Every structure is written in C-alpha cells, then in structure tokens.
Amino acid sequence: MYYCMLRSFNNNGKNFIRLVKASVCQKPRSCDTSSKLCAVCHRTHWPVSSNLLRPLMHVLQRHRTHQTTSHRYVSSTVRRKPMPSAFPVIDGGFQPVHKHVYEANLRNSLICQQKYLEHKQKVLKGGGENAIARHTQRNRKVLVRDRLRMLLDDENYFELSPFAGVGLPYGDIPSAGCLTGIGQINGLWCVFIANDATVKGGTAYPITVKKQLRAQDVAMQNRLPCVYVVDSGGAFLPLQSEIFPDKNQGGRTFYNEAVMSAMKIPQVAVVCGSCTAGGAYVPTMAEEAVIVHRIGTIFLGGPPLVKAATGEEVSPEDLGGARLHSEVSGCVDHFATEESEAYEYTRNIISTLNYELPEESSIQSEEPLHSSEDLLGLAPRSYNYSMDVRLIVSRLTDGSRFQEFKARYGTTLVTGFARIEGHQVGIVANNGELTYEASLKGSHFVQLCDQRDIPLIFLQNTSPAPSHTFSQAKAESNTNRLKAQGSMMSAVACASVPKITVVIGGCHGSDSYAMCGRAFDPNFLFLWPNAKVSILAPGHSDALMQTEEEITQINEMLEDESSAFFSTGRLWDDGVILPQDTRQVLGKCLKIIKQQMYQLSREKMRTPFLRL
C-alpha cells in the first residue's frame, strides 16, 4: 500500500509543506523493499513502515479536525450561554453643578422631540388623502403599511430612514416614496423594500433610488434576506440625470441584486402593482417572484407607449399581467388571486430558507440602574453643554456596568466593554477633543475588539472646529495629533467587526471619521434629534472667513444645514432616534447582525442565481 503525505517543516523561521513519499505494507514484516512508482506524485520512493508514519498521520488528523472546527456553523441544537459578566457598576448620578446644564439640555431636547413627532405625522400621511383614496378605491390596492402588516410577523419592525425625502430642493417626497426596514418573517429578520404608490404615483425620485440602494447595502453587510414589495411607476423623467447615469444610481439596484444572489443572500419579490421600465428587472432578477392577479403588471413600456409606437391598443393585463407572466413567459413563480394570498406565498417562501434559528434565550438582561428618560437632559444642545459621557453609557448598558479600558490615559475618549441586552460590545465615546493620546487609545481599543470579534458602538460628539495653530509648540502637537488620528482611522476602517454609530451631539470635521462616520461604512448610523452634522459647527467659522458679512452668511448656512432633520432628509444616516429609545434600537441591531451566524450555507458562490 502506497501513500503520499504532506509534512510540515521549518526553514529559517518560515513554515513550508513538503510532499512525503512513503509506502506502507499491510504486513510490515514481509514488506517489499523495492522502489515503486507513486500513483499520486508519479515519482519513485521507498517503502516505509506504517509505525514510522503514525506520528504524521496523527498530525494530519489533528490538522483536519482543526479545519472542521474553524468552519463549523452555529447549530441551534447546541446550548450555549454567555460568559458571566463581572463588569463594575459605573456612577451615573448627577452632581448639583450639573443641574443648570441638564435643564438647558432638557428644554432643547423637548423642542427637538416635538419636531421629531411632527415629521413622523407628516410621513405617515403618505401622498395625502386624495392619493390614498385613489389607491384604495379606484385601484383597489392595499396601503403599504397594511401590506407590511400582512407580510411580517408583527408591527415591531425596524424602519430605516423614515424621514428621508423631506425638505429637498425638488419638494417633499414623504419617506422617499418607499418604506425600507428590517422585520421578522417566520422568526427570520429580513430587509424589506416596499414602494408607496400614494407618493407621486410610485414614481422613483433620486432620493428613492438612494434609499433602495442603502437598504440593499444593509442586507449585504448583515447578510439578511431581502423582500421587494414592488408597486412602481418608473423614474421621474425631469430628474433623469440624477437617477440614471452614474455608478450609484438606478442601475446599481440590479447590480446589487446579482451580487446578493452570488453571496447566497435570498431575495423574493412581490409584484402588487406596476413594474414599469427599470422596475421590471426587480422581480425578474429575484430568486422567487409572486404576482397579484389584476393589479400586478411587468413590462418595460406600458400600453400608452405601445400605442404611440405601433398604434395598437392593448390592456395592461394582456401586455404584462399575472396570467401572462405566470403561464407564458415564466417571469414569475407564484400566481396570487389577491394581495393577502401573495404575502402568504412570500411567508412560505421565506420558511424554505436554510436557517436554523436558536431557541429563545431564557436569560433576562439587566436593566440599567438609571432611567432612560434622563438621556433627554444629557443630549447636549451644543458642544459647551456636553456632560460626562459616562452618564450616557450608564443609561444604555446592562445593569449600568462598564469595564473601562485605559481609564487614566487619553481621558477625552472613553473606551471599554459592556453588555447591551445581553450582547457584549466595545464602546468608544467622545468625552472632549480627540487628542493625540485619545487617538492612540482609540486605535488600540478598536484593534483589541477586532482581535476578539466584539462589535463596536461609537457614541459620537466631536469638537466643533479644528484646533488652530498659534505657536510652534502647538504646531508640533497638532502634527502628532494628526498622525495619531490617521492611525485610529486606519484601525476603524480595517476593523472587520460590526460597527454601530450614534451621533449624540456634534458630527464635525475629521474627528467624525475616526469615530466611524458615514464614510467609514458602519453597519448602522443613527442621530439623536439634537445632533449637528457639518464640517464646522454653527458659529465657528470666524477664523476661516475674511469679512463679517461672510461670517454671518456661512454661520446661517451651517445653522440650517447642520440640523439632524436636514441630514436624515438626504439619507446621510439610517434615521433619527429618540435618546430614550437608544438602548432598544442598539439591542435590536445587535440581534439582527448576529442572525447571519445561523445561516447553514453561506459560502460565496462563483455566479449568481439565474432565472429562466
């Protein structure tokens, strides 16, 4: 019996693997000592006793076991429990000196909260009463939020960027004309992208495309199944230059669909309205598609275009209706007589996905020792009204426990370990300017979390303006600070663990990049209503402008454009959240991110799934 085996050896500190040629006779005592030609390596080598190969066999078996273990997927049949937490409780009490700051912050937060509620009421109305009546009575369709109620397990879904599209130069587009978010279907978290046809008749504006692409990014980054609820009238032609030609515009939707399929991220489409022009590719590129009889249509050009081109009159049903595509073209896989049946089909499709979800844990996480309502008074109205960020941390973490890292070094950045609704996280929080020491500390901690596969939570409240250089000593200090911040940016950009950013105050200048701003691709990024997002904070442009008129003009612009609602209207974030809801939102995000561990088959494929 002949074998070719791999043997590891070391040469000058480098590991190599060598092919070991050996033959093993089933009867060692009568082993043939003549040379043989190996069928594996096609070389001549000499027989060796099986006793001599036993150590090598043991090494190979151990290597094989290690490989199996490292590629093992989590099974719900194995009961696991988190390591016990021995984190100390941090002091979250207020000092009397904080009272006037707290009260000023509270007054500002209540004003911001009222603005938040007004925006919420505005987007809930969709396209307005007339559009809703036309959608439900004349077109006999279900409203988009009612569609989500039929599709999802419950109404406890997580909507992304609900205020997108409000306050744009080309007018208000409530919710950007589509609802996106993450909800559970048969217990499985799924991204949904649902057109709201009451807003401009389902027409896609530039902000609509941007919101759809962001939802696809969330699905790819967190490996979540994606459900498209399609009811679209195509692109808004007067703004075609902002919808069609560029890389991250309309065509990127279909590119993402192909890439997601290649990544083995399931996609299902429900056609419950028009799929015209580019929208027709969404269901045809999904893995499975459902269409609703009489209201669902798929075509590149509708009946008016056919008549203009050929003079022929044709009905939408005959041109691209449910019967045509389910019986003739094969573009869809399931025919539904009404919308409720279509969502039942979709739920059944999701139940076929190859996931093994864990049993609900009976372990209850500790609530913080302090009320989350206190966060309204801790949300700074401006940078000068910032309080110790540990007061905020103590109202977010389980049991108000926090294991601080390098507590005495770089004190303007607070770093440490905690649990949020049972999930272990690393917290990086601004507590002043991001100095040289603070940047080195942040870089160290981010790499530490990356090494241990611990998700990172960034609580961002950066300084309102860059540090000015008034002397040679200050110039040297700023140079060192610049290099240290570059090191922290590299650590944040290269960290492969999930990252969630919450802007609790200011998001200004290069400090925001080191604190995992939008450009550094966090899994999720949220703003508190009091947040300010701009290159400079309002009122800090004096050193950069020449005249009083320029200073006034720039400060007025910064005041208008730094608002959290200005930012979220342009989709620079994933939504504005109330401070008191932050712990709940973070817990849900961490749970959503963790779901990818339970997909049984998630290796990347060479090619996407292709339909007929």
Automatic annotation (TrEMBL):
Pfam families: Carboxyl_trans. Its EC number is 6.4.1.4. One of its GO terms (molecular function) is methylcrotonoyl-CoA carboxylase activity. It is an enzyme of class 6 (ligase). InterPro entries: AcCoA_carboxyl_beta, ClpP/crotonase-like_dom_sf, COA_CT_C, COA_CT_N, MCCB/AccD1-like. Pathway: Amino-acid degradation; L-leucine degradation; (S)-3-hydroxy-3-methylglutaryl-CoA from 3-isovaleryl-CoA: step 2/3. Residues 364-611 form the CoA carboxyltransferase C-terminal domain. One of its GO terms (biological process) is L-leucine catabolic process. It catalyses: 3-methylbut-2-enoyl-CoA + hydrogencarbonate + ATP = 3-methyl-(2E)-glutaconyl-CoA + ADP + phosphate + H(+). One of its GO terms (cellular component) is methylcrotonoyl-CoA carboxylase complex. Residues 108-365 form the CoA carboxyltransferase N-terminal domain. PANTHER family: ACETYL, PROPIONYL, PYRUVATE, AND GLUTACONYL CARBOXYLASE-RELATED, METHYLCROTONOYL-COA CARBOXYLASE. This is methylcrotonoyl-CoA carboxylase. It comes from Triplophysa rosa.
